[in-house]
């Protein structure tokens, strides 16, 4: 059912984008889209959406906000699945201290 969910999630993200600001609702919509893309096997696109969500979340909410941490953690998983071990390890190394605080 991912083939049905992805277009709906894209519409949600687009609607949030048209609101003019990237708020926590936009970040949540981006995380939801990226997660669904991942489940659908669209790992490269999922990683890109997670990267965009992380950049926005860290800027708007802060690097230690739960939405920022969740997106970063999800990106680590995607990078592992893509075989991008070095990048995954680096991000995980940056993430662990934030989770411990």
Protein model, in words:
With 101 residues, the protein is mostly helical. 82% of the residues lie in helices and 0% in strands. It has helices at 2-18, 24-39, 43-60, 66-81, 85-100. The longest helix is centred in the middle third of the chain and has 18 residues, at 43-60. The chain is flat. The model has no long low-confidence stretch (mean pLDDT 90).
**Overall mean pLDDT:** 90
Q: What share of the residues lie within helices? A: over 70%
What's the gyration radius in Å?
13 Å
What's the number of helices? 5
Uncertain spans: none
Determine the strand fraction and express it as a percent band: under 5%
End-to-end distance: 38 Å
Cα shape: flat
Q: Please count the beta strands (DSSP E, at least 2 residues each).
A: 0
Secondary-structure element series: HHHHH
Can you lay out the helices and strands and say which pair or pack?
Blueprint (H helix, E strand, L loop, with lengths): L1 H17 L5 H16 L3 H18 L5 H16 L3 H16 L1
Helix pairs in contact: 1-2, 2-3, 2-4, 3-4, 4-5
Short structural description:
With 101 residues, this protein is an all-alpha fold. Helix content is 82%, strand content 0%.
List the keywords.
101 residues; 0% strand; mainly alpha
